[in-house]
Amino acid sequence: MIQIENLEFAYGAAGFGLRIPQLSIAAGSTVAITGPSGSGKTTMLSLLSGIFRPASGRILVNGRDLGALGESERRRFRIRTVGFIFQNFELIDYLDVRENMLLPFLINRSLKLNAAVRRSAETLADSVGLSEKLNRPVTQLSRGEQQRVALCRALLPGPRLILADEPTAGLDAANAERVMEQLGEHAARIGATVVCVTHAISLLDRFNRVLEISTFLEPT
Ligand code: ADP
Ligand code: MG
Q: By alpha-carbon position, which residue is closest to atom 6 of ligand 1?
């Protein structure tokens, strides 16, 4: 699924830079990435999602070399292949739960919003205990509920690659457990690969692999 070779990236000439000599992640596997703040975890997810482009090296996702794709091709790749769960959720305050879940379909023409997608959204909401709250503004939800909306939004298009950036940060133990369980279950159902940055030691045994970032990434 993911094959990285001699990847290099930097934020401008003097900014933080990183190098990943080699990293492979098997299709359908679930991988947790741990590491201290500022070590490059979010930057790495941004590279895997095609948000940032490597300066050199290869980053193959599903057989496509992201570094060789232009801006619009990487955007298409992201929309079709990647579900990103952001650390701060990135929900839209003035939209309700349903609209937030459907957002990728509302802003990307290549995702077609039809009756089947609307039904899937309701099924997904039901599976995470949000079916009673579909018409509520997201500002009226608890943090744990907001996280589940972000999870549903990332999963709804059926992405082959799910990237999650500290998805349980700030959640109590029960909610953290619940989010991880749902993430794992849904990923397994659609055969998606999961790369999840997390500090939650108690949740690590849910993953096929746990990688400390310094074992594969060198700051430059
Ligand atoms: P982590 O997620 O592991 O905490 P990040 O990948 O967010 O680490 O950041 C790694 C380093 O890159 C930090 O030193 C941070 O200040 C820097 N950095 C992050 N984002 C940017 C950016 N957009 N522009 C410049 N530097 C950045
Ligand atoms: Mg981060």
A: 40
